[in-house]
Amino acid sequence: MSSRFELIAFDADDTLWHNEIVFQSTHKRFVSLLEKYHEPEWILERLFATEIQNLKHFGYGIKGFTLSMIETAVELTEGRVSGKEIQYIVEMGRDMLAHPVELLEGAKEVVEEIAGSHPIMLLTKGDLLDQETKLARSGLGDLFSDIEIVSEKNVDTYAAVLERQKVHPEKFLMVGNSIKSDIIPVLEAGGEAVYIPYKTTWAHEQVPEKEVKQHQFTRLGSIQELPPWLGG
Fold first, then answer.
1. What residues form DSSP beta bridges with 9?
2. In CATH, what number does 7-17+103-230 get?
3. What CATH class does 20-97 carry?
4. Distance between CA atoms of 159 and 65, rounded to whole angstroms?
5. Do domains 7-17+103-230 and 20-97 have the same CATH topology?
6. How far apart are CA 96 and CA 90, in angstroms?
7. 3-state secondary structure of 59
8. Sequence ranges of the domains in the chain
9. Consecutive sets of 10 residues in the chain, 232 residues long: mean pLDDT of each?
10. Quick check: 1 and 227 in contact, CB under 8 A?
């Protein structure tokens, strides 16, 4: 494989294992709980708005999402939501945390192959305990030379990671499914990025096409295409 990269970093959620589908399944349960009060579209719109507002308080991850569901339920029912219904929302959050880690097809084989020729690290954002638990259950943890779980992925984050890793930006490659988090800030930090889209993207991670076209990066159809690309 190509040796032009001294470090290859992988995102976790929806790059190595399924994540967004777990949230979408919970959305349906949440709508079912509150549909006697409001239309599904409005419930999801208010939930999303609450999530975004709460990111600065709770950060990314299932725990913050669960708190946002509770807050949204209180708001949309004008305080009439029952203790039993609140308990059900808490159980939804627990079910999400306990959901099996399902690797994307070929992810394990690809990570093993690339780890044999390059230093690789896991670089993901979210709740520390949740991500550590998912990584342990994934069976991939021992393949990474380093693991960083950050609260946000922006230019400053990547610059700090590169400084800690003692890697020049042009020798760094980020692999992920979010143009907003895994691609654009890496390019702006001087690194290179490979975009591997997942079948669905959280609205907060979506980027207008006009902005996407301002950047040059590699797009692959699946993670299984990464080793051949590196070998090119």
1. 121, 174
2. 3.40.50.1000
3. mainly alpha
4. 28
5. no
6. 10
7. coil
8. 7-17+103-230, 20-97
9. 84 96 96 96 96 92 96 97 97 96 97 95 94 95 95 95 96 96 96 93 74 88 96 70
10. yes
